[in-house]
Specification:
It is built from 3 helices and 8 strands, in the order βαββββββαβα. The chain has helices spanning 27-38, 108-120, 138-157, and strands at 16-22, 43-44, 48-50, 59-61, 63-68, 73-79, 98-103, 126-130. The protein has a 6-stranded antiparallel beta sheet, with helices on one face.
Length: 158
């Protein structure tokens, strides 16, 4: 995938919510139980090639995706680790194994119910809301997710 310069200032994190998940389970197993518990249909996609920082080497990270068309939400389950490195190396987030990203914000009550649902999964040690702006350079990951989602949409139209 070719990388093009992006004006990150025009991109906003305001339409996203981010949940950190700690789980030692394989991503496909976690996705299965998230689907079962939350009543969604996360499906494996091609790995997201990203760096988390503009200066880091680009690496592949496991990605699952579900578009909830009736409410115009999108859900992503993104691994924070691959065989070589971590996507987010910030010491405050070392316990995070996966990021559960929601495009189009939920109201607080629905978000609390979603986190409670994640915490009911036996494979999940913890799940908690993260301010996206608190993670330096996470906007770069979001732009890569947006780019990949546009590829998903093109495929579904064809």
């Amino acid at each position: 995938m070719n990388k093009y310069p992006l004006n990150i200032d025009c991109f906003t994190s305001e339409e996203y919510q981010l949940i950190g998940i700690s789980s030692h389970s394989k991503e496909y197993r976690l996705a299965f139980f998230i689907n079962k518990t939350l009543g969604i249909d996360l499906r494996r996609q091609r790995d997201l090639n990203t760096s988390g920082r503009p200066t880091d080497e680009i690496s592949p990270y496991s990605l699952f995706y579900y578009p909830e068309e009736e409410n115009d939400h999108s859900f992503y389950l993104l691994s924070n680790r691959n065989k070589k490195t971590k996507l987010i190396k910030d010491k405050d987030y070392t316990a995070i194994d996966y990021f559960f990203v929601i495009r189009r914000k939920f109201e607080n009550s629905r978000l609390r119910e979603l986190i409670k649902g994640l915490l009911k999964i036996n494979l999940v040690q913890t799940a908690f809301l993260i301010e996206i702006d608190a993670i330096k350079d996470f906007l770069y990951v979001l732009t890569d997710l947006e780019e990949q989602e546009s590829h998903f949409m093109k495929k579904s139209v064809l």
